[in-house]
């Protein structure tokens, strides 16, 4: 009898729950600057107990750890450390790949480039979760600085080089050539426009990339697959600050760095971590936590990335949590429609990267990501950068289209849509030349 009542009650809750869901009003993003609510940002240079942070040491020892902890607890969740049994298997090394068509203007050193592929086994076991790294390095002397970035469609989508291992991981079926959630030969090179390898390599930088779905497939499965399944305790309830997918992808970038530190071809003190969109959010969180990344670049990262949450312009905390319930930690949902109660905002994420160079980039038509909010969080990280002895951000007003700011906090907004475009890459290489130092 009791069981039947419980079952009946459960049914009622389900019906009410579904009705509530169905009744949810359609989300209408605000794109009107005059409707941005008045807000006050938490001060990165005042501790939780109200003490001003007036010197680098207090920042380093008190405030920085405090802010990191706030982001772990309230936004991205807490990831494990480096696994005890991490192994690296370099399964491909070719020092004479002809990647680019022979032209008279092709710079020396990239007529042939080096391709290397490495499997990072996260539990040390052949059948455990693993990440495949794809690396292209210019043959311009060693070691080389690199850009490290996750990709959306598999390493084989980066260019048509048949030597790239075709990903066997789960993949979104809407991607070119993907059949039954698996890549096929037809998927090769489908994301090439986001990887202008010739331009990057010719300027002396390597590119290191991995498919983000190797780390955690990007759908909500209750954290069963990917690294969550491998590293979480299966028997214990998930704590509200357990790592979401963004934290998992960021953790994967740190594992890539673990490998790069062992590779004599790479200058691991000059690794710029970069990401577009959800992977821009990821790059920022990776760079904030892992100080081995010498430079951090956010391309159109938007809500939960560089954009200030309190502006509620374009995508909001509520909307991102509803559509992507697996991206952040459970605690972040407490701030749906209550952004002003967040103990942090995204300028503090940028501040965590200080004094290392950071570049935030927006696109004019990418209003969903709130270009102005992206600029403002970079701008509001300036006091921390200055406290740590850098030039911070050189401008106080948002620059015009195509007018990049190249101070230690860099920024640009370019015409066009949400994308990782050639213009963006050219500015990142300029920024790296300036701040990572030329060979
Ligand atoms: C969606 C999402 C954004 C995200 C983007 C992407 O638009 O709302 O937050 O940045 O996807 O990753 O492409």
Structure, described:
The structure is a single chain. Helix 6 crosses helix 7. 29% of the residues lie in helices and 17% in strands. The chain contains twelve helices and ten strands. It starts with a helix and ends with a helix. It has a ten-stranded mixed sheet with strand order 1-2-3-5-4-6-7-8-10-9. Helix 7 (278-289) links the parallel strand 6 (266-276) and strand 7 (295-299). The radius of gyration is 22 Å and the shape is globular. The protein has 439 residues and is of the alpha/beta class. It has helices spanning 2-22, 56-76, 197-202, 212-215, 226-231, 245-260, 278-289, 317-323, 346-351, 371-380, 382-387, 422-435, and strands spanning 87-97, 113-121, 130-138, 144-151, 206-211, 266-276, 295-299, 358-363, 405-406, 409-414. Alpha-D-glucopyranuronic acid (GCU) binds next to loops. Alpha-D-glucopyranuronic acid binds at residues 277-278, 302-303, 315, 320, 368.
């Amino acid at each position: 009898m009791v069981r039947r009542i419980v079952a009946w009650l459960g049914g009622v809750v389900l019906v009410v729950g579904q009705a509530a869901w169905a009744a949810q009003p359609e989300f209408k993003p605000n794109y009107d600057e005059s409707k941005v609510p008045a807000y006050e940002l938490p001060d990165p240079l005042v501790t939780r107990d109200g003490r001003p942070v007036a010197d680098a040491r207090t920042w380093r020892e008190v405030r920085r750890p405090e802010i990191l902890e706030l982001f772990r607890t309230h936004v991205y969740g807490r990831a494990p450390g480096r696994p005890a049994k991490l192994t690296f298997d370099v399964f491909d090394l070719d020092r004479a790949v002809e990647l680019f068509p022979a032209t008279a203007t092709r710079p020396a050193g990239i007529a042939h480039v080096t391709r290397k592929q490495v499997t990072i086994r996260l539990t040390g076991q052949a059948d455990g979760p693993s990440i495949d790294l794809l690396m292209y390095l210019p043959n311009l002397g060693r070691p080389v600085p690199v850009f490290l970035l996750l990709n959306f469609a598999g390493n084989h989508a980066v260019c048509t080089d048949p030597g790239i291992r075709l990903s066997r991981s789960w993949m979104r079926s809407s991607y070119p050539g993907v059949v039954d959630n698996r890549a096929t030969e037809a998927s090769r090179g489908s994301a090439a426009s986001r990887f202008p390898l010739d331009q990057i390599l010719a300027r002396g930088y390597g590119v290191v990339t991995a498919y983000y779905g190797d780390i955690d497939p990007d759908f909500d499965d209750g954290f069963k697959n990917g690294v969550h399944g491998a590293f979480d305790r299966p028997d214990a309830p998930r704590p509200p600050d357990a790592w979401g997918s963004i934290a998992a992808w960021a953790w994967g970038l740190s594992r890539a760095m673990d490998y790069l530190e062992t590779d004599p071809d790479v200058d691991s003190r000059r690794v710029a971590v970069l990401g577009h969109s959800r992977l821009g959010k990821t790059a920022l969180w990776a760079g904030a936590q892992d100080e081995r990344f010498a430079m951090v670049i956010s391309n159109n990262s938007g809500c939960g990335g560089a954009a200030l949450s309190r502006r509620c312009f374009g995508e909001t905390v509520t909307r991102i949590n509803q559509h992507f319930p697996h991206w952040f930690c459970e605690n972040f949902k407490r701030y749906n429609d209550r952004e002003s109660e967040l103990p942090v905002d995204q300028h503090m994420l940028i501040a965590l990267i200080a004094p290392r160079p950071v570049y935030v980039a927006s696109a004019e038509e990418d209003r969903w990501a709130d270009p102005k909010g992206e600029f403002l969080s970079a701008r509001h990280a300036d006091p921390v950068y200055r406290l740590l002895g850098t030039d911070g951000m050189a401008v106080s007003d948002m620059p015009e289209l195509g007018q990049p700011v190249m101070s230690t906090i860099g920024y640009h907004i370019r015409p066009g849509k949400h994308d990782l475009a050639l213009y963006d890459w050219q500015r990142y290489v300029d920024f790296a030349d300036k701040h990572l130092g030329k060979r």
